Amino acid sequence: MDATTQSSTVSEALLEVNGTPVPYSEGGRVLGALREAGYDVPTLCYESRLDPQGTCRMCLVDVEVDGRVTQVASCTAFQQPGMKVTTHSDELKQYRRTILDMLLSETGPQAECPKCLSFKTCDFHSATDEYEADAGWLKPIAPRAKALDPNPFIQRDYDFCIGCFRCTNVCNDWEMAGAITVDGRSQNSKIFSFFDNELLQSPCTFCGQCINTCPTGALTDKKIVGKTVAEKLERTKTICPYCGVGCGIQLLTQDGELKGSEPDFTAPSQGSLCVKGQFGSWDFVKSADRLTTPLIRKNGELQPASWDEAISLVASKFEHYKDTDGPDSLVLWASARVTSESNYLMQKFARVAVGTNNIDNCSRT
Length: 365
Ligand code: SF4
Ligand code: SF4
Ligand code: SF4
Hints:
Helices cover about 25% and strands about 20% of the residues. By secondary structure, the protein is of the alpha+beta class.
C-alpha cells in the first residue's frame, strides 16, 4: 500500500481535508487522505512504490490536532482521527512557489527539457507551471554537469536534475541493482555510478526504472528522445511480447509509427520491466521478413497458402503420424506469447484430441 491508497482497515473515525470529511485509515499517510478527498499537492521526491522520504517539502500541509497547528510533509505524516488538514493556504502556496523558484534557478531552461519536449510535461515543470514559478529574482546557479555516458539506452542530462534521488532509491530499493548512488552534498551532489564509471561498467541492468521515476528531463530514453514530439505521442496499453512474464507496457506511437515503450504502472507488474520490455527493438513489427500468411513447402519451395489450406495440412499430418506411429510420436509446444486460455486449449488438444502428454511451453526453458 502506498501513501495515496487508503488501507482496508478504515474505521468509523474521520479526519477533514479542507473541510471535506475523509474516513480515517489506520497507518495511512496524510497524502493518501488528501488525495482521497479529491485534492492534490505536487510531490517531487515521492515514489509510490518506496517508503516516503519527505525531503522535497513540496507536499507540506497544515495539520491541526487538538487545536495545535503544525506543518508536516504529507507523504510521511500519519493520519490521526479528528485531524484537520489544509492543503492550499496562501502561505503554503507561496512556500511551494519559493522552492520551485529555487529549483528553477539551478536547472536548465524548461524550453529545453528533454522529457517535456519528447515525452510529456515532466512532474517538475508541471509543478512550476501550476505554481507560476519564476527564478528571475534569484542568482542562477550552474546546473549539475551532464554525464558523458555512451550507453545506448539512458540519456543522463543532469542539467535538469533537482537532486530528488528517486533514481538512486528506485535503483537500490526496488530494482535492487545498486548501480547508482549519490556523491557529494547539496548543489555539489551528483548521481554517480561506481568510480564514476559509465553505466555499462556498472551493475546496471538497464531496467529503465530510473528514467521512469525521474520527475525531470535529467533521465530519458536515449533511443527516442529528440525523435518524438510530446504533444503528438500516443500511448497504448498492452503486454510485453518478449517473454512469458507478461509485464504491462505502453507502446509509444507517433503518426502511426511505433517509437518505443514505457511501463504500464497500472498493470500487476507495477511498472517493472527488464531491458527487453523497456529498450527492446520493435523493428520486427514492420520487418519485411515477418510472416503475414502461412507458407507451405511445395516442390522444395515455401509458397503462400490460405489458413484453411495450412490447418487442413497440419491436421492430416497429425492424423497420419498418430495412426502410423502412435500419439506419443507427437509433441506439442505452446507459446508464452499467447494467452493463458490459448495455452490451456493447446494442452487440452494434446491430451484429448491427440492422446499424448507430450506438451510443453517455451516459457519453461
Ligand atoms: S536502468 Fe535500472 S539498474 Fe540501471 S541505473 Fe536505472 S534503475 Fe538502476
Ligand atoms: S536524475 Fe532525476 S530522479 Fe535522479 S536525482 Fe536527478 S532529478 Fe531526481
Ligand atoms: S519486460 Fe522483460 S520480463 Fe517483462 S515480459 Fe518483457 S521480456 Fe519478460
